[in-house]
Write a structure and sequence with these properties.
38% helix, binds zinc ion, Rossmann fold, two-stranded antiparallel ribbon
Amino acid sequence: MNPLKYIVDFMFPRRCHICGGSLAEDEECLCTICLGALPRTGFHRVEDSRNAMVQRFAGLVPFRHASGHFFYSPQSPIAGLMIDLKYHHYSSLARRLGRVMGEELRTTPFLSDVDCVVPIPMHWLKQSIRGYNPAREIAVGFAEGSDLELVDAMIMTRHRRTQTKQTLDRRLRNASGLFAVTKPEQLDNRHVLLLDDVCTTGATMLAAAQTLRRTVPDAAISMLTLGVTF
Ligand SMILES: [Zn+2]
């Protein structure tokens, strides 16, 4: 180990984001035990009838694959991580989780014919207030872990009210016309993986997929989120 790094680690030990235990040299943000214990959905390898993401979007927009990687519930450890990702600017944690997801999906059929990953954008005003877009940080890590190209091809065109207490119907109406594709030529005739941090009702992801479908009809669409409710 680099002597300076050794001293810094000794004086300011790096801690696991979940259990608070000190991290080994090759661990980043999460210890191996906590990372291994995060509940994976396995949706990418189950039949469609058992894949809650596929069921959520079936019939609403044409797509090839859909998955959420970790089960998300208010009681699950991933919920605490998500709050930190969304509100506390933990970009290194977002990238770490994205990279884990990319590495775990890299050799699976889920990604076998995907050409590029497009993060779900945040409105520029919200992003400037928050300092970063967690979905994009997850996508940066995911692109590294999966060896896929990252393309910032979409923008959010208007600000919207926070959605947590709205009904699905209101969320869908609120999400209509929310996105625009700014670089359609970079997605044409490609298989695009839309990536977001968490999927609850699916309204945001659906709005992005419908916009992509309308703007770049020759692009194939798949959808992936780090966390998914069930
Ligand atoms: Zn831990």
